[in-house]
Write a structure and sequence with these properties.
- By secondary structure, the protein is α+β, with helices and mostly antiparallel strands.
- 39% of the residues lie in helices and 22% in strands.
- It has two domains: 20-85 and 179-210, no CATH class; 101-172, no CATH class.
- A hairpin with a 2-residue loop joins strand 8 (151-158) and strand 9 (161-171).
- It is elongated, with a radius of gyration of 30 Å.
Length: 211
Amino acid sequence: MISPGGRRGPTVELVIDTSDAETQINRYARGVYGALQKALERGGPKLRDLVAKAAPKRSWHLADSIEFIVDDLTLEIFTDVPYARLQEEGSAYLPGGVIRPREAQNLAIPLPAADAHGITDPEGGPGAWARDVIAHPESFGFVDTFFAGEAIFGVEQIGDERDAVPIFALKPFVEVPAANKGKGYLRITVLENFDIISDLAVEELDKLGQA
């Protein structure tokens, strides 16, 4: 555009119209956002499974509880099992060095007979909560269960006779040795396998560039 002369004389103004460029930039930014989010959604299950594999296993409750969510461009891998933080960080964070139940009056601690009945398995097999055994005793070789003193008993039917076997000890709290440093299974596993996410991000961004 040429404007009439002024103090500077005739002037030529060049105006760059960025509306089309802004549209393209915004479209590309949305594409990058979507590609990165898809990388997290694809990588979430992979990291979750690796963390579950690395988690300590006696009853498998901790390993089976590992979950993930993708919110915006954030991937969270987590568990809500009460003792998960102890296994991750050790006993230093515990008030007084003890674990207490969140809602129940007592913690149910598996006893040796629990292994024999498939409630827990030292070799890493599937396990069950005390409430599972109480609700379905037949699934664990019992005909009934009952509470007595500071234990939960399973009732075995042997011919015409019945035998009561202690399967869980009931404790209002459990003291944890101060030397327990935790295993860091979640943090270490994620850090050691973060390249899963970065590789998927590169893959998704390459797809975006080819579109």
